[in-house]
Amino acid sequence: MSAREMLKKVRYLEIRTKGLVNNLFSGEYHSAFKGRGMAFSEVRPYQYGDDIRQIDWNVTARSQQPFIKLFEEEREQTVMIAVDVSGSGQFGSFDQRKQDLNAELAAVFAFSAIKNNDKVGLILFTDEVEQVIPPRKGRKHVLRLIREIFSVKPARKGTSVREALGYVNRMLKRRSIVVCISDMQDANYEKTCKMTARKHDLIMLCVDDVLEYELPNLGLVPLKDPETGQILMVDTSDASVREEFASERKKNQMQLADFLLKNKIDHVFLKTNASYVQPLSSMLRSRVQHV
Amino acid sequence: MIFANPEWLFALLLLPVLAAYHFRYIRRGREGTLSFSQVTVLQKSGNGLRAKLHVALPFIQLFALGLFIIALARPQEENVVVERETEGIDIVLVIDISSSMLAEDLRPNRFIAVKDVAQQFVRRRTNDRIGLVVFARESLTLVPPTLDHRLIHNQLDIMDIGIVRDGTAIGMGVATAVNRLRDSSAATRVIILLTDGENNSGEIDPVTSAETARTMGMRLYTIGASGEGSAPYPVDDPVFGRRYFSIPIEINEPMLTQMAEMTGGRYFRARDNRELERVYSEIDALEKTPFTENIFTDVQDRYLLFLYPGLLLFVISFLLKQSWLRAGIQ
């Protein structure tokens, strides 16, 4: 991919996500990720409609006019986006690969973050951490992040969510927002995942392709796993093979969903052929309710 | 199973090499593969019978190739057929068990000597059917002609004087033997008559019985078992114990000779144990069964046993690969 193409792609992604970030997600993001403490901002005269509980009695008594004391929540949070760039991301049945959806989701979160004056960092991981970009502010920084997602040439192919989240745990001392975008083709991540969820605001975005749930009938085909390189001849015309596969996959997903629910980790299951707007915003809204 | 061109078997060493090569070929995915990210799940949930067969196909072909190589080595079956032509002859021993057989001119007496020698004779004639007929005043078949020589040994052991009424009916003995051999299909049928006296009872004249033997095509050997002059004969007296009387030897040699010669046999005279033994071995020598032993080494090529299944497997796997087990996106 040449630099020009890459820029075009990043630009396109920026425009594509802009509307979403500015309109749909702006409020939701803001309220979903509240800061921790409240910092004093100003004292101003009471106006009709203000909450009377905000009236500061000391200042009011001194000036004989009602004043209210305003606090501002502590913004400037850190958003760490961990993106899975393993081999399985190359898969995608409709016009989008999983990797493309990963990039788009990362872009949405990154733009939303800088819009809310948050710092954004990026971790690209396979079965080890491939690349880390420390959190910073600014649109330029976000554009760089997106460019990195597109241009990364991972040295390895597997997936290890544990590695990525473990790295995040070690790296971020303060409570931050951690967005993990992966297809979760992994095991043994539960413990680290729980730890991250306790320490930070963890959001899991599980990206899948529809064909990863329903095998199409293609006849007898050799399938190659992009992560392990293993080649398996599969009779996709055999209905029982397809059913077995579907039920196995469903079972795996149920297990994952169970685990995430039980540990109260916010998560969204996304598919490459469906819009992510609706599921994302409903997740953010549900966060507002239980925060 | 032997191989006419065993050097071809070294080609079998190629098979593991080919299998290894094939494995690498598959692993590298030269045939073109689809990328699919859930192969591990598929492996767990099963990839279908057809897929498994498809994977097995190249190995079936390798197996067929192995069969071809074995066929090239020309497996042969060597069948050694030993054809032994034993012209089994039928022999009936006709033994006199009249009381005069107790005379002790042969040691320990005639009867026991004859028993022993007959045992030896039977032992030597392994391929012949042997029967046993005894006679005194009447005649009795103890054993019809049989290959079960143990039975004859047993019967010779337990046979004793006095199981039939005393007397000497040579004609009856021979006639019974002739009767026994009548239905036999053996090419040579021999009667060996052993007696120590003169014919003095029975409904059939000895010469007449020899006549029937001749018409039936049997050979009759006659043995006169007795010394010369007189023989000591034991008598158990309840008062004085065992005493010996001298009894005269009455043996109708001309008649026995006539009987033997009528049928193409011979008459022998056994005056003591040694002579008796000689007589039997002479008869044994005379009745040597001619036997031919033909050894055929029958070499048959068995390569078809390998070629046909190999060909079949090869064709089947080829057809399957093109039809039912055809891989690729349809």
Task: Please give the most extensive interface between any two protein chains, plus how many residues each contributes.
Answer: A-B, 39 and 33 residues
- In which range does the helix fraction of chain A lie? 40-55%
CATH hierarchy class name of the largest domain in chain A: Alpha Beta
Order of helices and strands of chain B: EHEHHEEHEEHHEHEEEHEHEH
CATH superfamily of the largest domain in chain A: von Willebrand factor, type A domain
In CATH, what is the class of the largest domain in chain B? Alpha Beta
What overall form of chain B do the CA principal axes indicate?
A: rod-shaped
CATH topological fold name of the largest domain in chain B: Rossmann fold
Helix content bin of chain B:
40-55%
What's the Cα radius of gyration of chain A?
22 Å
Mean pLDDT over the residues of chain B = 85
The major sheet of chain A is characterized as: 6 strands, mixed
Regions with little confidence, pLDDT below 50 for 5+ residues of chain B? none
Structural class of chain A: alpha/beta
Whole-Å distance between the termini of chain A? 43 Å
The count of helical stretches of chain B stands at 10
- Strand arrangement across the biggest beta sheet of chain A: 5-4-3-6-7-10
CATH architecture of the largest domain in chain A: 3-Layer(aba) Sandwich
In percent, how much strand structure appears in the residues of chain B? 25-35%
Query: Mind summarizing the main beta sheet of chain B?
Result: 6 strands, mixed
